[in-house]
Specification:
- With about 475 residues, the chain is an alpha/beta fold.
- β11, α16 and β12 form a beta-alpha-beta unit.
- The radius of gyration is 27 Å and the shape is elongated.
- The strands form two sheets. The chain has a seven-stranded antiparallel beta sheet. It has a seven-stranded mixed beta sheet with strand order 10-9-8-11-12-14-13, with helices on both faces.
- α3 runs antiparallel to α7, α7 packs across α9 and α8 packs parallel to α10.
- It folds into two domains: about 190 residues, Hen1, N-terminal domain (c-terminal autoproteolytic domain of nucleoporin nup98, 2-Layer Sandwich); about 230 residues, Rossmann fold (3-Layer(aba) Sandwich), CATH 3.40.50.150.
Length: about 475
Amino acid sequence: MLLSISTTHKPATDLGYLLMKNPENIHPVELSFGMAHVFYPQATDDLCTATLVLDVDAVGLVRGKGPGGEGLEQYVNDRPYVASSYFSVAIARAFGTALTGKSKYKQELADSKIPLTAKIPVVPCRGGEVLLNTLFAPLGYEIKATRLPLDSQFPDWGESRYYSLELSNTVRVKDLLSHLYVLIPVLDDDKHYFVGQAEVEKLLKHGEGWLSSHPAKQIISTRYLLHKRSLAQLALDQLLEEEEDPVEKQERQDSQEDAVERPISLNEQRINAVIETLKAHQVRSVIDLGCGEGRYLKEILEHREFGSVAGIDVSPRVLEKAADRLKLERMPERRREKISLFQSSLVYKDARLKDYEAAICIEVIEHMDLPRIPVFERTLFQYAHPRVIIVTTPNLEYNKKFETLPAGKLRHGDHRFEWTREEFQTWANNAARRFGYSVSFSPIGPVDEELGPPTQMATFVLAEAEKEVESKIGKGNNEN
């Protein structure tokens, strides 16, 4: 099983700098399922070719390090001989630095597009030449694919699902490797290891910059994640967010909402109300769901009462912006230990959500499509199950008071809905009843006698925890 990458860029031997592998040497790479070797069969100024050879330990596969199965399938399968998810792992291990787009000596070249040709002798493709073109043509590749017979000695047996593949393009080395890393398992429609949320993160990481605009992103996500619907939908949701630069989009839409609400300083009032409520419930650890660029996290960190603070967001780019806002790199070590940022979705069960006493969801729920709200409820109330949950959301009725907001318009360009007081309280009461919480409601901002407050807040307290507190208070009074 091998991959060759060639360039005619001059001097072509610069490929060695880009792949971080000296053309004069053979480079062994030890893997859990075998060995990989990188060498250069040709290295001149006019043409340079790097070859990655993967030798899969067939005996190791039978011992459980590879595909499962019983009987003959354990011993007779194509895994050692074709490009598959094993090969993606080998690419990541052998060319890890190049896959990140970094080059110690030739960074300017690493950032440049150069003529590259990749050849793979045997690729399993469940979908034929149509799928090959669907995946690679939109990325600008010239594709040469030859379907291989089942057995060259017996042509009457017909064609196989295997192809020899040659791809040519003027592209960055990083992009070529990323395309191969993601799309080889997509062609095979299989993987040799468990597929969970970590695979979503890998897909988004290696698909950054090209996958969100790819016309076949749904096919790619579905097959890369082994047709697991919840994971594929999670990936697609995040890819849709990335079609427009997430940081620019959020800044633009937030500025629109801020302009509407600025006359009554709602942002400041919201975070103050949330922090005071957290303190009242003696919360020590809190996670901000949908933290965005970290404006609320920055305020929470100023209060010593909170020993552990975290923020999650669906967009890695937005989290980078949050890290910049919080100045994490320059933050004193003891304070830095208090804060965690991680990428996740509010509609996916993530074990990291369970580590916090309180969860806050400030002006986030209205950004979800209404059909996704029940999934969000189960993730937050049932799975994460924090002691205290605080949810704030706009009061639709109050919109009449905003002179700059056209009639019938919502406050934010990304709001899917805005609830009246009755609608919000109905939702909150139902959620509290189903998941064992009590709930109370508080106004935020100036309260209009007829229309209510501009922002409405619900505080959910786990009923069992509330009883424990009341019991302790009662016991203390009796002792006195």
